[in-house]
Write a structure and sequence with these properties.
The protein has helices spanning about 10-30, 65-70, 80-90, 125-130, 145-160, 160-165, 180-185, 200-205, 215-225, 265-275, 310-315, and strands at about 40, 55, 75, 100-105, 110-115, 135-140, 170-175, 190-195, 210-215, 230-235, 245-250, 255-260. The relative contact order is 0.16. Helix 10 (about 265-275) packs across helix 11 (about 310-315). About 30% of the residues lie in helices and about 20% in strands.
Length: about 325
């Protein structure tokens, strides 16, 4: 970078947050660093001033309440379907939450329910019909959207939840990360394995004797009003598949805010993303494809409306189709 193209040297009060943000960016990129969620708080200089803005880089729907209460001005969640459910007042949400999207980070994924072939179970509905004491393996932390999406899928398919499986004498086992243990399958310690991030674990599960329990057309229609979609897991995603299989869509990472967030604040968020897009990685590369992130696509579901200021900004810069 030449001296002429450098931005103005920051003021003394700006140097400290810049140093902190850049240091945290480096730490978050380090694979051995264990803390991968971040909450950033910003205020005017002066210890007596209140914190003006809180931005939360998380992935869980349990953080919706903090944005609704306006304690947090910017949040993130995975998948887009969880946010759509909340803004529709569907599933466990008794009323629509006043949340709107700023943009959606592309991510194409499914949440898949698999059953050990030895169980003979071929559909999600059969789990509820049989009421067997099944051993179900779920993500280790219960605030993850896996639990929200799984319970609503089970309710739609057969009127039951994970808690019902426990009542029938079954159990919920917690797996760490996105992996399925071959020995646990072979020893009968796992009957049902549910997870997203299918490109990491699904191929192994199929090789270990697990069967995908698909989302058929009838079930897809039942979950649609909830803000949930069905999408295809394809042989190009998991080579052990012979053909496309429909499962619960788990695509999109919405960045969201309160419906009443000030327009100038939302525009500032959008402008900051636009200014630094070349430095922000995503699953498909090292630069955010903002021209895709406010438009409907398989990996950018737009089931929750854009905040009006975000919509105006993206349209002005030519990103919104």
């Amino acid at each position: 970078m030449s001296l002429e193209s450098r931005p103005p040297r920051p003021r003394a009060d700006q140097i400290r947050p810049i140093l902190l943000f850049e240091m945290c960016s480096a730490l978050a990129t380090e694979r051995t660093w264990p803390a991968t969620q971040a909450k950033v708080m910003m205020r005017r200089q002066g210890s007596s001033n209140p914190w003006l803005y809180t931005l939360f880089a998380s992935d869980t729907p349990t953080d919706f309440d903090e944005v609704v209460s306006k304690d947090v001005q910017l949040g993130m969640v995975n998948p887009a379907g969880a946010l759509a459910m909340a803004t529709r007042g569907a599933g466990p949400f008794t009323e629509p939450l006043p949340l709107r999207v700023i943009t959606v980070i592309p991510s194409y994924d499914q949440f898949i329910v698999t059953a050990a072939e030895r169980t003979g179970i071929k559909s999600i509905a059969e789990i509820g019909e049989r009421k067997q004491p099944l051993k179900v393996s779920m993500r280790e932390y219960e605030d993850h959207a896996d639990y929200l999406m799984c319970n609503e899928l089970f309710r739609a398919a057969g009127g039951f939840t994970l808690d019902d499986i426990v009542k029938w004498g079954g159990s919920i086992h917690k797996h760490r990360g996105l992996s399925i243990d071959k020995g646990e399958v072979e020893r009968g310690e796992i009957d049902i394995f549910c997870e997203e991030g299918i490109h990491i674990w699904l191929g192994n599960a199929l090789e270990y004797g697990m069967r995908i329990l698909p989302v058929d057309d009838a079930l897809a229609q039942k979950i649609k009003p909830l803000g949930m979609r069905a999408s295809a897991t394809r042989p190009q995603d998991v080579h052990q598949l012979k053909e496309d299989v429909k499962s619960l869509d788990f695509s999109g990472w919405p960045i969201y805010t309160h419906v009443d967030a000030p327009d100038d604040l939302v525009r500032a968020f959008c402008a900051a993303l636009d200014a630094r897009k070349e430095r922000i990685p995503w699953e498909g590369g090292w630069s955010l494809p903002l021209e895709r992130m406010c438009n409907e696509g398989p990996d950018t579901p737009q089931d929750t409306p854009l905040h009006k200021a975000a919509e105006a900004y993206w349209r002005e810069v030519g990103y919104l189709a």
